[in-house]
Amino acid sequence: MNCKGLLILGCVVGLTACSTSTVYIVRHAEKVSEADTSSLTTEGFERAQQLADRLADERISLILTTPYRRTQQTATPLAHELNVPIESYPAQPVRAVIERLAKAKGKNSLVVGHSNTILDIAKGLGVAPTKSQIESDDHDNLFVVTVRKGLLGTSVRLDEQTYGKPTAP
């Protein structure tokens, strides 16, 4: 192979090694009760729609939720709008969802979890959220983790946001 061919091959290999993925991590919206089978409240369904409105243009191609109704209901409006199926992951250990996200190289994803898992998921992706815990009435956090893989390594960035209208006390 001549020098020009090697240069082209090197560029192709280099470009295929580069990717950017953005993972949007949220807790499920407001729920009726503490029961595992609990559905969302009216406010929770409104928040789920607000999440769909917020993420509609973010090129999400992977939606992951735990098998619980409240996480699936939170993701459903976006899944319907984008025509993306909801995939289930076990609520614990969070390692399972981290491994699944690692395989989604170059894809944007939504992960809907629980108050006791979303911070660990963010940490598992390599960032350090400022919150140390998610309170039981806290449903508006949106953790945006951007993972850039390039020829010189990987960089991970966290943007902590909120979404939706505040719910009445």
Automatic annotation (TrEMBL):
A Pfam family: His_Phos_1
Entry protein name: SixA phosphatase family protein
SMART domains: PGAM
Matching PANTHER family: BROAD-SPECIFICITY PHOSPHATASE YOR283W-RELATED (PTHR48100), HISTIDINE PHOSPHATASE FAMILY PROTEIN-RELATED (PTHR48100:SF1)
